[in-house]
Amino acid sequence: MKIIDARIRLPYEFRPPVEGVDLSIYHSQYDQVLNVSENRERTFEDLKQDMKKANIEHGIIHAEYEYGDHADVLNERVAQLAMKEPDLFSGFGTISMDNLQPAKANKQLEQVKKFGLLGINIQPSFFNIPIDHKKLYAVYSKAEELGLIVAIHTGVNYSTAHPLKYEHPLLLDQVACDFPNLIIIACHASWPWVPEIAALARKHPNLYLDFGGLAPKYIGVPGSGWDVLYKFMNNLLSDQLLFATDWPVFSMERAVNEWKGLNLKKEALEKILGGNAMQLIKKTKEGLASR
To answer: In which band, very low, low, confident or very high, does the pLDDT at 5 lie, cut at 50, 70 and 90?
Structure first.
């Protein structure tokens, strides 16, 4: 069983320093809920060791960020890691979300493609932008044209300065309708709006769900909010689910073990842990090469 972690955060050692930002807005409640600070400084070597311990054969590094504007630097550094060890890593770039300008974002998308990255990761709500904002439509259009995937933060966030209303997965519906050939990944699988994201995934075959930053064991717990999605994991939605950890937010070894403990069918588990991501990587690389 090949295991692929579909979303790993670019280690902090490769991120430029952020100035003029009150980080407590972003970190304090995240530390209360997820104990993020104790893992924030884990290194690239730690990442490779964690992958080895969890028997993860490939990881997709994302240039996701919640504050500042270092998109170009992040893209370069993700690309460098992916090019240095292509058997072990692929990558997702990003765009400048602070003072979002479609023309600049589209140039960044073109650079992301030139770097050989699979797509972009954006977190609109951290910049007080709804998923279906008109400025993002130019970005979605360009990504669809280039054959790039768009991974979007959905569901709950723990920032005390950014409302949840911009994270609602129903905002993805119109986007998916307007860009039917765009592959979208709903990061964090949109909890607590699980019935909504399950319905959207059933409606839109190009919509995928990743489970990064979540404790998989709760997915199988009745009343946890995951009930509808858990029911469809073995059948209707098994081709659209992606194993992810949001490393270093969540332990890789723990995530793998908890997925294996969910009593899913062998075929479904193999798809979730790696099969779906493998097909998605292959499909995307073939599409990028043909454009």
So the answer is: very high
* Strand ranges across the sheet with 184-187: 4-9, 58-62, 89-93, 119-122, 149-153, 184-187, 207-210, 241-242
3-state secondary structure of 185: strand
The helix or strand, by DSSP H or E, that contains position 21, with its residue range, turns out to be none
pTM of the predicted model, to two decimals?
A: 0.94
Tokens 């190009």, residue located: 206
**Residue at 160: amino acid letter:** T
Tokens representing residue 157 in the block: 């966030």
Q: Are 269 and 235 in contact (CB under 8 A)?
A: no
- CB–CB of 246/145 below 8 Å? no
My answer on whether omega of the bond before 192 falls inside 30° of 0, hence cis, is yes
Instruction: Write down the H helix ranges in 128-226.
Output: 134-146, 171-178, 194-203
Cα–Cα distance for residue pair 90/121, rounded to 1 Å: 13
Helix (H) / strand (E) element for 287: namely: helix 276-290
Q: Which structure tokens are listed for 33?
A: 């809920």
Say which amino acid occupies 185: I
In this prediction, residues 49-54 reach a mean pLDDT of: 98
pLDDT per residue as tens digits for the range 78-127: 999 999 999 999 999 999 999 899 999 999 999 999 999 999 999 999 89
Beta-carbon contacts of residue 249 (< 8 Å; ≥ 6 apart):
9, 34, 36, 39, 212, 213
Sign of the alpha-carbon torsion through 23, 25, 28, 30: negative
